[in-house]
């Protein structure tokens, strides 16, 4: 399991990055970022709260990557389900061999 505290302590090379750099650093597409921005605003959030900080004279949007990373960890990280021994596995396919049916689990 990933320790989020270690991730949040990550030191970025630059305190402010362009939007394209942010997407590369975090590993998301620009369209995903735009969707997250729209959803955040639609839910009443301010883009500045997630690190958006446009600078005068800079054509591309700029971001505080540390604030954005906090947003990703706190609002976009999938919650991992705990392993349960009660999970019932059902066969995903059936293989016919020598006119007998054999069922295999495909995990």
Task: Report what the structure shows.
- It is built from four helices and four strands.
- With 107 residues, the protein is of the alpha+beta class.
- The strands form two sheets. It has a two-stranded antiparallel ribbon. A two-stranded antiparallel sheet has the order 3-4.
- A hairpin with a 2-residue loop joins strand 3 and strand 4.
- The radius of gyration is 22 Å and the shape is elongated.
- The chain starts with a helix and ends with a strand.
- The model has no long low-confidence stretch (mean pLDDT 82).
Concise overview:
The protein has four helices and four strands; from the N terminus they run αβααβαββ.
List the helices and strands and how they pair.
Blueprint: H1 4-8, E1 17-18, H2 19-26, H3 30-42, E2 62-63, H4 65-76, E3 93-97, E4 100-104
Antiparallel strand pairs: 1-2, 3-4
Q: Which structural class fits the helix and strand makeup?
A: alpha+beta
The largest sheet, given as strand count, sense and whether it forms a barrel, is: 2 strands, antiparallel
Q: Termini, distance in Å?
A: 20 Å
Mean pLDDT: 82
Low-pLDDT regions = none
Strand element count: 4
Strand order of the largest sheet: 1-2
Q: Could you name the key traits of this structure?
A:
107 residues; alpha+beta; 4 helices
């Amino acid at each position: 399991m990933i320790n989020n505290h270690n991730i949040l302590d990550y030191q970025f090379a630059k305190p402010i990055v362009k939007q394209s750099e942010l997407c590369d650093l975090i590993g998301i597409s620009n369209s995903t970022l735009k969707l997250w921005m729209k959803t955040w605003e639609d839910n009443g959030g301010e883009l500045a709260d997630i690190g958006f900080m446009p600078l005068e004279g800079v054509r591309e949007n700029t971001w505080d990557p540390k604030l954005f990373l906090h947003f990703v960890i706190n609002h976009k990280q999938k919650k991992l389900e705990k392993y349960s021994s009660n999970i019932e596995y059902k066969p995903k396919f059936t293989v016919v061999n020598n006119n007998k049916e054999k069922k295999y689990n495909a995990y």
